[in-house]
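FORM 12-B: Structure-to-Sequence Request
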């Protein structure tokens, strides 16, 4: 049995931020820029609080079975909620999407490499 890699995206919006919380998020905005985002086991957070209150967490996880993606998604949502709660940030509209990379279509280079191996 092979290990499957999952990418989980948890989206939401900050809600009811105080002026101090908004200032803290603005001060740390460079660390949470979308250009620095990656899917990691601990998750990365991106936002642009100056433009809109939305945020995105990106997580990676693994599992053995296709059904493990459900548990991975639950863990990602729990981790995002814990991060927000630790800092006292209110949030709303939390939703998640998950992708099993073993089921993702191959890109052009990957298809070419697969054909050359099979030849």
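FORM 12-B RESPONSE
SEQUENCE OUT:
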């Amino acid at each position: 049995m092979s290990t499957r890699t999952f990418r989980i995206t948890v989206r939401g919006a900050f809600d009811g931020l105080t002026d101090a919380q908004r200032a803290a998020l603005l001060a740390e905005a460079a660390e949470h820029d979308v250009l620095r985002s990656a899917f990691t086991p601990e998750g990365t957070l991106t936002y642009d609080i100056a433009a809109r209150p939305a945020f995105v967490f990106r997580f990676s996880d693994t599992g053995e079975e296709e059904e493990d993606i459900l548990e991975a998604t639950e863990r990602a949502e729990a981790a995002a909620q814990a991060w927000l709660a630790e800092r006292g940030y209110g949030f709303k509209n939390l939703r998640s999407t998950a992708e099993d990379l073993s089921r993702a279509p191959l890109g052009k280079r990957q298809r070419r490499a697969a054909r050359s191996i099979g030849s």
